[in-house]
Specification:
Layout (H helix, E strand, L loop, with lengths): L3 E3 L6 E3 L6 H18 L2 E6 L7 H18 L12 E4 L2 H10 L11 H15 L23 H11 E2 L2 E2 L9 E7 L4 E6 H6 L7 H8 L9 E4 L6 E6 L1 H4 L3 H10 L13 E6 L10 H4 L4 H32 L3 E4 L7 H4 L6 H16 L1 E6 L3 E8 H18 L9 E3 L5 E2 L4 E2 L8 E3 L2
Helix pairs in contact: 2-4, 2-13, 2-14, 3-7, 5-7
Amino acid sequence: MPGVAWDGGGERCHVYGEQGDHDDDEEEEEEEIACTSDCGKVCILSIDGGGMRGIIPGRILAYLEAALKTRSGNPNAKIADFFDVAAGTSVGGILTTMLFTNDGTGAPLFSGEETWKLIAEKGEQIFKIPRSQRAWKKLRGIMTPRYSTKYLEGILKQHLIRDGRALTLRDTLKPVLIPCYDLQSAGPFLFSRADALDCEAWDFSLWEICRATSAVPSFFKPANMTSVDGKTTCTAIDGGIVMNNPTAAAITHVLHNKIEFPNVRGMRDLLVLSLGTGQFDQTYGYKKVRHWGAFQWAKPIVKIVLDGISDIVDHTISMSFGRRHRKNYVRVQVSGLPDRALMEMDDGSQANVNSLIKLADDLLEQKSMEHLPFGGRRPLSESNMERLDWFAEQLVQEQKARLHRKRPTVMLKNATRDRCWIHSRVSCAICENHMTVVT
């Protein structure tokens, strides 16, 4: 039977394996080319969670940033210069914060290269059990959280507190989205720059947000958070439980945010890069699992759930872009490697760091994979490195094209801390002086 896939624009479905109306397709394609040329594409970055495996997307971003410098001719080019929206879960949320937070001069705090190096250098300290407690370390994580939060919090505060003031969502350069799970409301909670600019009740300290999205149950205790104005509280645990791959959240944010992205009509107006942190693809035979109980399932089921959440998001988004626009969605993911480096999110040893670096570098050389509608994954002819090179070129060309377009592709709310006295709102979208056209 032919497969069916939504093209993301809401107008029609494509049936694979059937002959369509070529005249209608050609007219529609010409119309889309004209619209895209006039309106451009919103550029989205999404980074999965995965603990120490965050080194993998960090290395990928370092490669992409180098490619952007070469293609743009700007030796100071940064990831934040070319993406309009960034979403990250757990360590992906930390990477997002590092790459998109204003350092006080209008530049981001970290370069792509610096992100993975920080994880590599600080991982062993973050996942450290005090010497006095090592005798009963096997019980840690069962009876109590396995790790103290003081090391992680100390590192986050070192970079996300400036002149005695904790940086908040309003200090980010572009829209960011970072999820957690709120135990108080029993549901996902999405930290959003757009919400923070509208209302102080949704503005939170960035170091606490990073702490919240990475509060893996049994690893770290939950994060008890309060908004800047003290009106909103959140008892947060790891965002990966519900949104380990936040790409869908980022796309939904863009499609429904007509203030900042006024001309987006569907998936065809997006350029999306989604970075994974490794996928287990561990298989189990019936004879092995048929007598398993809760104890045997405890560890595998966590990996299955996290991989399944990320994988189904990837599959759905690939389908949503449709046959014609699927090239505008690039997913880079390590799969099929049941390696110890993939199994241990909390192994900060130098040996594991070296293994993760090699995995990332090998991943660049491997053939890229894509999801087919109802057909699983297939390897492409291009390597991940080649697809990233192509993606870098698209980002550079999009940025150049915005200088000449009549209609703005992106109009970001300004990160002002002043209240609009006319409309009694922070960064009121109605006032032009509170909006910036992104070029």
